[in-house]
Design goal:
By secondary structure, the chain is mainly alpha-helical. Helices cover 70% and strands 6% of the residues.
């Protein structure tokens, strides 16, 4: 029996060429689709990131505006200077940063907007208390030229019968007592909740965008592999537009630098992707530097952070305050070091609550702390004294199970010192004077210098 075998000659070159053309068209179409999707994802990620940044900025502006109003009303009630009264109402009714922040939040998270609106309502409620305190000062000082909004505020019969000193004392208490700071704490809590919600929303949005981005990058990688097979015979072109840029990019990555956006369009998209990821990576490293500049126990700036601040702040508009916990060794010996640590943590918490969010709290030694009160002229001694008295009052409270504590403070305005080293020396000298006077007190360097001169005479 004869068996006829069919000879297999293989696929012709024309057929291979035809299939290569078809494959190149398909791969090119896939590449176009993948890169177009990648571009849309990047544009969406950029737009959402910019929106989240703007929303967080608006929330922080409301917090700053609230702190600004608090500072002005406190300074007016302590010092009676109508300049602070006018600045208060200029912010409340002309600048209107709080209202602008609410308006800009209208396109954001409803939950974040709701918490921010609650904070705004609390701020408006607090203004009623501030109006009343300002009215007391107006009556006590006999001020005749004041904003129309305060003309409708009526004092109670009991408060109206107080003498000028009594009215001033009541006004100061109203903006520095527990009730006032309790309302401020509620406002800050709602603001923090709003910021937390924005952070959560930003995290969810970025996570979703990055997942989509990874999927699209996988598609791009697959298409690149297919394209490499399809253009095997185009070695020169791939070397010029693909291999050389990749080798150059590897060297740049080894040198920890961005990738040049050169070569084929597809590689340019990948380079932009890497460069944006590179920027995110660098930003993450900056966040890690937070640990290097902050005290692990209290969360205040550590010595390294203090040195950086001292070298970068405008000292001519800054108060430096050196805080020392009185009899801290006795607290450690009597109650143990763990309790001593909790006292330090409490002190930092109180300092951050009493001072503005723009001010800086630093731990420079065991129980020594520095507060930089920025954007402040040398005429704020009354406000600083009131804040320190408030701090000592809170440290005296034992409801949290901690022993009573107190602080001695030395205070110097940067305009009284020639340089940073001199500023610290004078602050330390003023604090030493406080210790000599029996602790639990404060000393302004200018007052200490005057006392020294009198003794010398």
């Amino acid at each position: 029996m004869v068996i006829n075998e069919k000879r297999y000659d293989g696929i012709s070159l024309r057929t291979i060429h035809t299939w290569l053309i078809i494959g190149a068209v398909i791969v090119s179409a896939l590449m176009f689709y993948a890169t177009y999707d990648l571009f849309k994802s990047f544009r969406h990620l950029t737009e959402t990131s910019e929106q989240q940044i703007e929303l967080r900025k608006a929330a922080r502006e409301l917090m700053d505006a609230s702190d600004y109003l608090t500072e002005k009303v406190q300074r007016f009630t302590v010092e009676g200077d109508t300049r602070f009264l006018n600045e208060y109402f200029a912010e409340a009714f002309e600048a209107r940063h709080r209202e602008e922040a609410i308006a800009r939040m209208s396109d954001g998270s409803e939950t974040a907007l709701e918490r921010l609106q609650t904070a705004m309502d609390g701020s408006l409620k607090l203004m009623e208390r501030e109006y009343y305190a300002m009215r007391l000062v107006i009556e006590a000082r006999g001020i005749t030229d004041y904003p129309e909004a305060l003309q409708t505020v009526e004092l109670s019969a009991e408060d109206g019968a107080l003498d000028a000193e009594g009215k001033m004392r009541l006004a100061t208490e109203m903006v520095l007592d527990d009730g006032y700071y309790a309302q401020k704490d509620v406002i800050r809590e709602n603001m923090r909740a709003s910021l937390d919600e924005l952070e959560r929303m930003a995290y969810d949005t970025d996570a979703s965008a990055l997942r989509a981005l990874r999927e699209e990058l996988n598609v791009v990688r697959a298409v690149i592999v297919l394209q490499t097979v399809g253009i095997f015979f185009m070695v020169w072109l791939t070397s010029r537009l693909g291999i050389h840029p990749v080798l150059n990019a590897v060297e740049r990555i080894k040198n920890d630098s961005p990738i040049p956006e050169v070569g084929a369009n597809e590689f340019r998209y990948l380079a932009r992707t890497y460069n944006r990821m590179y920027e995110v990576y660098k930003s993450s490293l900056e966040h890690l530097n937070f640990k290097a500049s902050h005290d692990e126990l209290t969360g205040a700036y550590n010595r390294a952070g203090y040195d950086l601040l001292l070298s970068s702040l405008d000292l001519s508009s800054t108060y430096m305050m050196l805080f020392d916990v009185d009899n801290f060794k006795t607290i450690n010996d009597t109650y143990g070091h763990e309790t001593g640590d909790r006292v330090l943590v409490k002190l930092v918490r109180v300092l951050k609550n009493i001072f503005r969010s723009d001010d800086y709290v630093c731990r420079i030694g065991g129980d020594e702390f520095v507060v930089f009160m920025v954007h402040a002229n040398e005429m704020q001694q009354g406000l600083i004294a009131a804040k320190i008295d408030r701090i000592n009052q809170e440290l005296k409270e034992t409801d949290d199970g901690l022993p009573e504590a107190s602080i001695s403070v030395g205070i110097v305005h940067g305009s009284d010192a020639g340089d940073a080293a001199s500023l610290f020396e004078k602050t330390d000298e003023a604090m030493y004077q406080s210790k000599q006077r029996g602790k639990h007190t404060y000393t302004f360097y200018s007052e200490a210098s005057d006392a020294e001169q009198e003794r010398a005479q």
